[in-house]
């Protein structure tokens, strides 16, 4: 099979109702996407699998759903207002913008987290060597790099239309800020003992200079984050434990181990002692890209918010009579990136009888629709009624679809393209022997199953292969 291209995934996602460009009837809105019916179902299945693993199946992690808007000082304390930015350069000819560090990396120059002065020195060297050209139009007329803030501003609650530093409210650039602000309330209300974690899923916003690569990098996105609070003496052991735990989760949801790898950060934030990314090998993006980060953040976050707010965010350990500010191990996942990972991993083209079959081979637990039910013929009322009865019974337990449009072959292809594991056909034999044909998505093999055994059959198949 030929390598999967991003164009193939984008086309399928739009054609089959997974992802649509936002505001398309008005010409679209750059780097913003809406998730259609099947996209919402897939994204929710990924989200629920993470929540089950991180909260439902553990005693030491509590859930939270904090607000997108927070007091502006939150982001001053965290350092985002002062330093959450990327280096930007512009092409004066075609007016395109680029991240300067990414431009340098395209010339083999490592530029992650380097000072703006160093970036401009490297750009000037390339310009002097007549190598620096626009990646879009080829022009040599490029600006120097400048810092570009990633914070998205709002005047929420302001009595004036004017947006100034005095009335600005920021849309959160990451979800973990809400966890830090609700740490004290959680301690006072639920009285957890260290070590424990707080997890949440929610939207975040970043004013990316260049937001491309479909849903991999967008300006509005969803994160699934967990902050694990603990005594500093436990950091090293807990950090390795969380690395192992998160790695095993990807295997559990059906990601082959050879498709993921660890990337260790050589340049760390000043407060961090360790940082690793889990990277997935995207066929559609041409290589390994970050999908999750695991970070040892020290006590920076709680210490900063305690300093700026005046609140006591320390913890008193009764057994040792020690008071300290808890340290944090963080796991941070991009839900939209996992969505793209699942599409990228599942997308398959196969030759079937001289024709190309496009199929999304999702792990069963993540498939948007689990079962589709067809009457063999739309114009035979007795088959339609029986098929409807089967559909109504099954949808009480499974996410199901009923489809009677076109011939059976076309219906199979439609379900293949949305990743439905099993298709059930009600035919004339069903009316006499109360059996149906069950067709497997991956093998295309068919079995006759008694209606009385259908639910247990599907439960076994979906459970064993999820």
From TrEMBL:
Record-level GO BP terms: diadenosine tetraphosphate biosynthetic process; glycyl-tRNA aminoacylation
InterPro entries: aa-tRNA-synt_IIb, aa-tRNA-synth_II, aa-tRNA-synth_II/BPL/LPL, Anticodon-bd, Anticodon-bd_dom_sf, Gly-tRNA_synthase/POLG2, GlyRS-like_core, tRNA-synt_gly
Top-level division of the source organism's lineage: Bacteria
PROSITE patterns referenced in this protein's UniProt entry, alphabetically: AA_TRNA_LIGASE_II (PS50862)
Recorded GO CC terms: cytoplasm; extracellular exosome; microvesicle
Keyword Cytoplasm assigned: yes
Assigned protein family: Belongs to the class-II aminoacyl-tRNA synthetase family.
Molecular function in Gene Ontology: ATP binding; bis(5'-nucleosyl)-tetraphosphatase (asymmetrical) activity; glycine-tRNA ligase activity
Matches recorded under Pfam families: HGTP_anticodon, tRNA-synt_2b
SUPFAM superfamilies recorded: Class II aaRS ABD-related, Class II aaRS and biotin synthetases
Aminoacyl-transfer RNA synthetases class-II family profile domain mapped to chain residues: 7-375
EC identifiers of the protein: 6.1.1.14
Name recorded for this polypeptide: glycine--tRNA ligase
Keywords: Aminoacyl-tRNA synthetase, ATP-binding, Cytoplasm, Ligase, Nucleotide-binding, Protein biosynthesis
The protein's enzyme class: ligase
């Amino acid at each position: 099979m030929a390598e999967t291209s991003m164009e193939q995934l984008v086309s399928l996602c739009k054609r089959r109702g997974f992802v649509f460009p936002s505001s398309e009837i008005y010409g679209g809105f750059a780097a913003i996407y809406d998730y259609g019916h099947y996209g919402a179902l897939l994204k929710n299945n990924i989200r629920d699998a993470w929540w089950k693993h991180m909260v439902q199946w553990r005693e030491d992690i509590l859930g939270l759903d904090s607000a997108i808007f927070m007091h502006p000082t939150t982001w001053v304390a965290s350092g985002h207002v002062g330093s959450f930015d990327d280096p930007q350069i512009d092409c004066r000819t075609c007016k395109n913008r680029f991240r300067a560090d990414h431009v340098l990396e395209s010339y083999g120059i490592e530029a992650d987290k380097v000072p703006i002065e160093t970036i401009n020195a490297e750009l000037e060297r390339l310009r002097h060597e007549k190598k620096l050209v626009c990646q879009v139009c080829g022009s040599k007329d490029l600006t120097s790099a400048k810092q570009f803030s990633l914070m998205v501003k709002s005047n929420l609650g302001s009595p004036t239309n004017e947006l100034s530093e005095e009335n600005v409210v920021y849309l959160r650039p990451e979800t973990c800020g809400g966890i830090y602000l609700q740490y004290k309330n959680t301690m006072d209300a639920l009285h957890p003992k260290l070590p424990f974690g707080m997890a949440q899923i929610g939207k975040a916003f970043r004013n990316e200079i260049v937001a491309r690569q479909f849903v991999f990098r967008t300006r509005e996105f969803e994160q699934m984050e967990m902050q694990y609070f603990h005594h500093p003496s436990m950091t090293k052991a807990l950090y390795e434990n969380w690395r192992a735990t998160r790695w095993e989760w990807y295997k559990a949801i059906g990601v082959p181990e050879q498709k993921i790898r660890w990337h260790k950060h050589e340049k760390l934030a000043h407060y961090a002692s360790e940082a690793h990314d889990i990277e997935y090998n995207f066929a559609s993006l041409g290589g390994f890209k970050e999908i999750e980060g695991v970070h040892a953040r020290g006590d920076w976050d709680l210490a900063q918010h305690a300093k700026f707010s005046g609140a006591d965010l320390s913890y008193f350990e009764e057994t040792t009579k020690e008071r300290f500010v808890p340290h944090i191990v963080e796991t941070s996942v991009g839900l939209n990136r996992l969505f793209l990972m699942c599409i990228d991993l599942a997308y398959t083209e196969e030759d079937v009888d001289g024709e190309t079959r496009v199929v999304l081979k999702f792990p069963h637990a993540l498939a948007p629709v689990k079962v589709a039910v067809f009457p063999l013929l739309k114009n035979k009322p007795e088959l339609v009624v029986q098929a409807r009865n089967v559909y109504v019974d099954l949808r009480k337990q499974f996410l199901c679809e009923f489809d009677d449009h076109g011939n059976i072959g076309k219906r199979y292809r439609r379900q293949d393209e949305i990743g439905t594991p099993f298709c059930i056909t009600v035919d004339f034999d069903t009316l006499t022997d109360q059996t149906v044909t069950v067709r497997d998505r991956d093998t295309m093999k068919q079995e006759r199953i008694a209606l009385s055994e259908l639910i247990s059959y599907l439960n076994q198949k979906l459970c064993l292969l999820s």
